[in-house]
Specification:
Blueprint: H1 2-16, H2 18-23, H3 31-46, H4 66-69, H5 73-83, H6 88-111, H7 116-127, H8 130-138, H9 141-162, H10 166-178, H11 182-199, H12 205-221, H13 223-231, H14 247-251, H15 261-286, H16 291-311, H17 316-319, H18 335-354, H19 358-361, H20 369-390, H21 406-414, E1 447-451, E2 455-461, E3 465-472, E4 476-483, E5 488-492, E6 495-497, E7 500-501, E8 506-511, E9 514-522, H22 526-551
Helix pairs in contact: 1-6, 1-7, 3-5, 3-21, 5-6, 6-7, 6-9, 7-18, 8-20, 9-10, 9-12, 10-12, 12-22, 13-22, 15-16, 15-18, 15-20, 16-18
Length: about 550
């Protein structure tokens, strides 16, 4: 039955993402960035760079330290398919479809404890939630994969609380989550921490402690990414994400009394409240001895209500207390957790309906009313997905409409390495003095003379290595069309030399008369080196911990209270 359900989830994935599969992409939202990043990330891997942190061909060739700050996992997946022979359109379609399919499969793995048929219904609910529809429409690749991992994380958490050996898998999960989407990681960590505190009331403290510690080990494994992403923010315009004093975050909060994204959550919540009222009345009347089922379902519903509150402007005083939490860019990102809880609630209700004795099932169709409502919700969400995606023209079927950013989309798809693509402003350097953001100019030479006279010959210009020969008979200033970042190191005639930062954020060097070989090399920063060492130590610790667990059975099972 598991195999049949997985096949059905695959068919559901095709139905959900059919628009992109058949007719291509629409160019909306962040899709251009993700196409650009997959193209240049895979190019870096093809050059032999195992972790392409610098995207040399973006920002019109000025480059960008994008993957110093942005998690790379989804782009490793995209690069795998692209380097395997798929073109970029096929690659993006495959990666997005895998994200939807993974969401369904992972939720099924988590919810099988409530019964396979009920878990299948919950998986369909999770795959068709409006959040995933908007991510497909707006090209939210990394966020989509974060939505995919959430059910798996809860499954591994529950298993870890039961058997300590599962903490190894849970630690790996947190590493995967950290390498997928940082805002989702931050929100999930906060919510998960409260869940761990709640578990202290139900589980032995040792099992909760080991489970909680696995998150720390998981974060340690990805220190090579996290340390740089946190400690090197001062070199770029990272504050752009939330705006001055959280203004962008504040503007993104939902107002319950206006049209907009908030209605998406309120409508779904309203349906679930109605389901719970009917479900409670039914169970209270016929199965009062099963009050635990009602209590469990109402807890999930209470979490949904709390999450909706945290996404509205009524909760601004809470968010205002933490500038770190505002880095998630929008409270709407809580929607990923909201829809996971909604799908779980649907699964619980469906499971209890299917557990009704046969004699009670034959009494009245009323007992199936909650299940009918849930199936109607899934069908309505599926219709919403298709209507939303069909609303916008795609690359290959524009009809009477016009694909947004059509020329930029074509450039990102078919001509990505011609130095015609820009990158997001938050990863560009801040300029001296006024702290404004560097603005790249298209069509600038790779190496130019800012001052003086000199003969310049470019011998090598790769992503991580640039070699230029210079001959000058008077003082000269050589300027590289490359944004400064501390990972870049300059060598003149094989000797280290200090780099000057130009007024536009690029790198330059002053030369006395002579003949020189200039080498720019992108190398590890001290922060990255320390992070890599911590990652290796964390992996060693996880290996030793695993050997201890499996060698000593006393650590393998955590009894419940």
């Amino acid at each position: 039955m598991d195999g049949v359900i997985v096949i059905l989830l695959a068919l559901a994935t095709i139905a959900i993402n059919l628009r992109m599969i058949r007719y291509g992409m629409n160019g909306l939202g962040d899709l251009l960035w993700h196409i650009t990043w997959v193209q240049h990330f895979s190019q870096g891997i093809a050059e032999g760079i195992w972790y392409p942190r610098w995207l040399a061909g973006t920002n019109y060739g000025y480059g960008s330290p994008t993957f110093v700050f942005y998690p790379p996992l989804a782009y490793y997946i995209g690069s795998f398919f692209k380097l395997a022979g798929l073109n970029i359109e096929q690659t993006m379609t495959t990666v997005f479809s895998l994200g939807v399919f993974g969401a369904g499969v992972n939720f099924y793995i988590y919810s099988r404890k409530w019964g396979k048929v009920a878990a299948f219904i919950g998986s369909l609910c999770y795959m068709t939630v409006p959040s995933i529809a908007h991510l497909l429409k707006g090209g939210g690749l990394a966020f989509l994969y974060a939505v995919t991992w959430i059910p798996l994380g809860m499954y591994l958490t529950e298993r870890s609380l039961e058997k300590t050996k599962w903490t190894i898998a849970l630690a790996i999960f947190w590493s995967v989550m950290a390498l997928t989407h940082v805002p989702s990681l931050l929100l999930c960590t906060v919510v998960w921490s409260f869940y761990m505190v709640f578990m202290l009331l139900k589980r032995p403290w040792k099992s909760v402690l080991f489970t909680a510690a696995s998150a720390g080990v998981g974060f340690g494994i990805v220190s090579f990414y996290l340390l740089s992403a946190i400690l090197e923010q001062r070199f770029v315009n990272i504050a752009y994400q939330s705006g001055p004093e959280g203004s962008r975050f504040r503007e993104s909060m939902f107002n319950l009394f206006t049209e907009g994204a908030s209605n998406m959550f309120v409508q779904q919540l309203s349906v679930m409240i109605f389901v719970m009222v009917v479900f409670t009345i039914m169970y209270w009347q016929f199965f009062r001895k099963h009050l635990l089922a009602i209590k469990t379902a109402w807890i999930w519903l209470g979490i949904l209500i709390l999450l909706v509150f945290l996404m509205t402007d009524l909760s601004w005083p809470i968010w205002q207390t933490s500038s770190i939490l505002q880095k998630v860019q929008s409270p709407g990102r809580l929607g990923s957790i909201f829809f996971f809880c909604q799908a779980a609630l649907c699964t619980i209700v469906a499971s209890r309906i299917f557990q009704l004795p046969v004699n009670y099932k034959s009494i009245s169709i009323i007992k199936f009313l909650p299940l009918v409502i849930i199936m109607g919700l899934i069908f309505n969400n599926f219709i919403f997905v298709n209507q939303l995606l069909r609303k916008f023209p795609t690359l290959h079927t524009p009809g009477n409409g016009q694909v947004e950013n059509l020329e930029r989309l074509k450039t990102a798809l078919y001509d990505p390495y011609s130095d015609k693509l820009i990158d997001v402003p938050e990863y560009r350097p801040l300029l001296k003095g006024d702290q404004s953001v560097a603005a790249p100019l298209m069509g600038q030479p790779r190496v130019s003379l800012a001052q003086g006279q000199a003969s310049i010959q470019i011998n090598q210009w790769d992503s991580y290595q640039r070699v230029v020969n210079v001959t000058n008979e008077e003082k000269a200033t050589i300027k590289f069309r490359t944004y400064y970042f501390p990972a870049w190191h300059l060598y003149i005639n094989n000797q280290p030399h200090e780099i000057d930062i130009a007024d536009d954020g690029t790198m330059q060097v002053n030369l006395e008369p002579g003949t020189y070989q200039l080498q720019l090399r992108y190398q590890w920063t001290q922060v990255f080196t320390v992070g890599l060492i911590l990652s290796i130590l964390s992996l060693i610790f996880l290996l030793i911990w695993g050997l201890i667990i499996f060698k000593h059975p006393v650590f393998q099972i955590s009894s419940t209270k």
